Amino acid sequence: MARLSTVGLGLISLSTSVALARSDILTYGDLEADEVTSGRGQCGWAPLDPLNRASSTCGLSLLQGFGTKPNEWFPWTHRPYCADTPYCVFTNAHFQGNQGVSIITTPELAAGTLDKLEETFTTVFQRTKRGPLYRVVDIPGKGRGAVAARKIKRGEKFMVDYAGLIADTAFPKSTKLAQGKKLLETAVDQLPRGGAIRDLAKSTNTTERVIEDLLRTNSFGMTLENRNIMVLFPEISRMNHACSPNAFIRFSEKTFANSAIAFRDIEPGEELTISYADFGMLRDERQDFLRVRWGFTCTCDLCNLPEDEVVASDARREKIRDIRDVVLKHVNKGEFNQAIKKHKMMIDLIVEEGMLVPLGEYYDIMARLYNTIGDRRNTEKWARMAIDDLELFGGEEIYEQVPELRDILDGI
């Protein structure tokens, strides 16, 4: 099925960035997924200069050709394939427990990102126990999908998946159809789980452009070293869409892993869903976006509400948008009491609308606003609420504001 086009699954809120009158009042960085510590190394590079090709015995200077021996194109396990185009396929079949990853990009960009990619090649593989947690079955009207194999608790991580295919978004426009097809086929065929990736291609009636269609309908849009990329996660791709999903994902640039986490308790046999659209969109906006971008009409419970309930839902969502903008204006002007009042209204509306989001991100803002005006009692109240909620969804492993909130509590 189709995939979400953005990484961040936050609402439409302040959770990724806030324009501030004072930079030390409210700060939100990107919320990274579970990052695990680096493990074994694969090359004797100097610690302070891990990609110094001059001193490396197993490094690769991509700009000087690929050579004919495996040690000449390390860390790739296959000789890079270019199909007479500026773009090449770079494959490491041993990536993350021999799951493998193929990257379609230019040699220059591959060389420029090796410092980041090398860390992912040597990072400890993280697993979840797939069998007890979920299974892939036929879903009526949706093709294949994932369902819970047992009860999954709110905040529980039930799936960890690693990038299988990464492609520069510019390459389709820079190659001929036959060249692009060959690059994609090579990228998939060189992977240990290439067959599983091909099995995802179920939204096309032809056999000529199976992998192209697969990438279009199952990839996430992300950035790497300021380049737009498409990333395919074979396991995450099994989860279908719902406008009010029971799960969300977090991506780690360090491990190239996507983790799926339960928004709420999920019963055995219940379908596992994520949202392919921004949470703050109105019903018609969601319908148009999903139809144009992903080629299907959403029939989820939220979209199929009675018309009067849809009108009420859209009204709440529009009000949330308006209040968010007002809060930002108050913060920029230093009007923190007004910002507190409006932000509390926004939290109440989010709860009333039933938007399944980690509320700790919003509680965090309340704590910082109260701390700014010197209200210790409410600072402590909201900071503890924020920590409790964020700990449930991964804690400081995912949310950098958790240790910051603890520092705030220590300073009260």
Automatic annotation (TrEMBL):
Signal peptide (from-to): 1-21
Matching Gene3D superfamilies: SET domain (2.170.270.10), Tetratricopeptide repeat domain (1.25.40.10)
Specify the SET domain's residue ranges. Answer: 132-277
Q: Which UniProt keywords apply?
A: Signal
Q: State the name under which the record lists this protein.
A: SET domain-containing protein
Name the species this protein comes from: Lomentospora prolificans
